[in-house]
């Protein structure tokens, strides 16, 4: 089967790898000049540095299994981390319940409410119940306006820009749950995984495997239209 994939990020290239391994004819198209998508990277003094995503959670079993399958799993290491929150010229520790209760930019009632909202989100079992709500809407309801103004809105705006208020609460739920898994019990520091040499190691391995399987990766090639006929995708039109 001939398959076209739009996007050369982790999802697109992983799909290309698995499909080409099954004997399908695969072509990947991406408008960017480099592969990677939001897990992309750029060169710095002989190595690479991630543009956005830069660590792996311990619960990312599928990603870790993929890296092992590609032969680069030994490049991942985990380490305990520290976290701080910068506000009005000062860095506040922000990694534990004790740190939150000591976060003086918020009044004590807002600190407690912020902590309880995180605990509430951890108790949610089905992400689908969060899908139709925006993250900021959910946070304003349960964490409160003041916590959103000082903590959550700046974080979401830095990550998503002007689209911050369109991000699903299901995304936020996933991040909170991932961090809970990475931290373990509440007395432990969070452990995050990093790739020696950065995500470039993973993407180079994926690209090599796709090409070895006969796949083609087109960068700097925007897809203008996905052609649909009789309710089925039949092709693409690129610039």
What is this structure, in a nutshell?
The protein is an alpha+beta fold and 239 residues long.
General description of the model:
The protein is of the alpha+beta class. It has two domains: 121 residues, FAD/NAD(P)-binding domain (3-Layer(bba) Sandwich); 108 residues, protoporphyrinogen ix oxidase, domain 3, CATH 1.10.3110. Helices cover 39% and strands 23% of the residues. It has eight helices and twelve strands. The strands form five sheets. The protein has a three-stranded parallel sheet, covered by helices on one side. It has a three-stranded antiparallel sheet with strand order 5-9-6. Strands 3-4 form a two-stranded antiparallel sheet. Helix 1 links the parallel strand 1 and strand 2. Helix 1 packs parallel to helix 8, helix 5 runs antiparallel to helix 6 and helix 5 crosses helix 7. The radius of gyration is 21 Å and the shape is globular. The mean pLDDT is 91.
């Amino acid at each position: 089967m001939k398959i076209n994939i739009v996007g050369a990020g982790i999802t697109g290239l992983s799909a290309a790898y698995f499909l080409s391994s099954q004997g399908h004819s695969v072509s990947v198209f991406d408008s960017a000049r480099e592969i990677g998508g939001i897990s992309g990277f750029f060169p710095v003094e002989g190595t690479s540095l991630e543009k956005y995503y830069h660590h792996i959670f311990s619960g990312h079993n599928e990603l870790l299994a993929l890296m092992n399958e590609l032969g680069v799993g030994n490049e991942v290491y985990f380490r305990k981390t520290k976290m701080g929150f910068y506000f009005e010229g000062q860095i506040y520790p922000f990694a534990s319940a004790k740190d939150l209760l000591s976060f003086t930019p918020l009044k004590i009632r807002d600190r407690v409410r912020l902590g309880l909202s995180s605990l509430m989100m951890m108790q949610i079992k089905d992400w689908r119940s969060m899908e139709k709500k925006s993250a900021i809407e959910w946070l304003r309801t349960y964490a409160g306006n003041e916590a959103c103004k000082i903590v959550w809105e700046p974080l979401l705006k830095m990550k998503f820009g002007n689209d911050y208020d369109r991000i699903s609460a299901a995304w936020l739920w996933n991040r909170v749950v991932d961090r809970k898994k990475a931290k373990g019990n509440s007395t432990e520091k969070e452990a995050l995984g990093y790739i020696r040499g950065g995500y470039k190691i993973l993407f180079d391995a994926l690209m090599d495997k796709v090409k070895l399987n006969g796949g083609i990766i087109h960068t700097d090639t925007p897809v203008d239209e996905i052609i649909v006929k009789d309710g089925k995708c039949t092709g693409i039109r690129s610039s």
